[in-house]
Amino acid sequence: MKNYQNKAGLILAASIPIFVLPARISEGQWKDPVNLLGSEVVIFLMSLTCWHCIVAIQKNLNLALWQKIALSLLCCCALSNIFFFTFNPIFKDFPFRTATNPLFVRILMLSSRGVLMSIILIPGAYYVQKDLEARTAQKEKQKLAMQKVQIQNRLLENAVLERTRALHQSLVSVQNSQKELEHQLYIQSRLLASFNHDIKGPFKFAVTVSEKIAYLAAAKEDSATIQRYADELSKSLKNMLVLIKNNLDFVKLPVKQHLETAENIILRDLIEDKASVFEGSILTNKNILVIKVDPTTIVQTNKNLLGIIVHNLIDNANKYTIEGSIKIHSTTTDDFTLLTISNPGIEISSQIVAWINMKTNTDNTITPSDLTEIQGIGLLLVKEIAGILNIGLHMYSDPEGIHVALRIPTPGENS
């Protein structure tokens, strides 16, 4: 903007000596070209100085418009006199036909030249100043418009970012909900499989006893023997009824409630409750169940899910033991209770033992179908539910038989 003002001043300052040049040539001043050229340069410098003074007055003085014009006019008159009396001894830049006039008259004549210059310079300076102000205002307006656009762009970017973040959070929430739903469906299927599996053993025993009663009745055997079998059948059916009712009530609950429900459990009561379901089956296989668990031992976990584990371990131990001793014992520390279920049983594949002892099922050499064929669904349920409850599971064998150990949290353990 300053360059624009300077260029305008140069043009107007140069136009004044050019404007008066024809009149000076007509007066015969061309006879002394050095003087003519020098005086033209002096007039140009005088006009340029007047221009800058007028511009300075417009910019720097807080006056009314007429006051600025009057002061600019005085500056032009004063500078006309100053430049004449300074440079006239060298270059005669005025047609001084009346050189003998008094000083006062010469000052008036020089001031009239300043007035003539101001007629060109003052309007030009004011026009350039107004144009400069208009350009500055336009640029400021454009700058404000650009800033407004930038602000709007930033707001739009922030809005897009917020929408994207909200969409991402919604997507993550949906994915988490889907994973949770899949996990709940998986657990629910395991619970139903456990329910189906748990009632098979007692039902088979009930069928066997009922057939035995029918046979004895047909053979007209001792009524005392029939009564004993009938009592066993009745007891077995009552236990199955309780088992079915508990399992059905448990399956009806939301899966999430299954996992969040942890309580203090008297371990021996839970074991005896589950063992009573298999009392008839154990007698049928001529086995003995020995429970060496302190009645005061308390663990903290989900009672129903732990009951499924104990149920399946007792069922498996009894199923693969004939005329043997099934032992259940526990040891307790400050942090956990180690519950071990042992039976003489048949030898188990080392692959299955390794699979059971893994924290996760990463070994593809053993699949659930392989495990079902060898050991039924019981061990599969035990492993999966133990993982859900964060219960440590370990299987090992020695000359005395097969042992499955459960590391169950006690109240206060930071699991």
UniProtKB/TrEMBL annotation:
Molecular function via GO: kinase activity
Entry-linked PROSITE patterns: HIS_KIN
Record has Membrane as a keyword: yes
Membrane-spanning ranges: 36-57, 69-91, 103-128
Record-linked SUPFAM superfamilies: ATPase domain of HSP90 chaperone/DNA topoisomerase II/histidine kinase (SSF55874), Homodimeric domain of signal transducing histidine kinase (SSF47384)
Record flagged with keyword Transmembrane: yes
Catalyses which reaction(s): ATP + protein L-histidine = ADP + protein N-phospho-L-histidine
Ranges of residues in domain Histidine kinase: 194-412
Keywords: Kinase, Membrane, Transferase, Transmembrane, Transmembrane helix
Broad EC category: transferase
E.C. no: 2.7.13.3
Stated name of the protein: histidine kinase
Organism: Dyadobacter subterraneus
